[in-house]
Amino acid sequence: MAKPMVAIIGRPNVGKSTLFNRLVGERIAIVEDTPGVTRDRIVADAEWTGHHFMLIDTGGIEPHSQDTILKQMRLQAQIAMEMADVIVFLVDGREGLLASDYDVADMLRKHKAPVLLAVNKLDHIRMEEEKFEFYNLGLGEPIAISAEQGLGLGDLLDLVVENLDEVYKEQPEEDITKVAVIGKPNVGKSTLINRLIGEDRLIVSDIPGTTRDAVDTDVIYEDKEYIFIDTAGLRKKSKIYENIERYSIVRAIASVERADVVVLLIDATQGVTEQDAKIAGISHNRNKPLVIVVNKWDAVEKDNRTVNEMTKQIRNNISFIDYAPIVFLSALTGQRVLKLFDEIAFVKTQSEKRITTGRLNEALAEFVMMKQPPLKSGRRLKIFYISQVSIKPPTFVIFVNDAKLMHFSYQRYLHNSINDTFDFYGTPIRILVRNKKEQ
Question: Quick one: which of 155, 233, 315, 344 is 20 to 30 A from 325 by CA?
Answer without folding.
Answer: 233
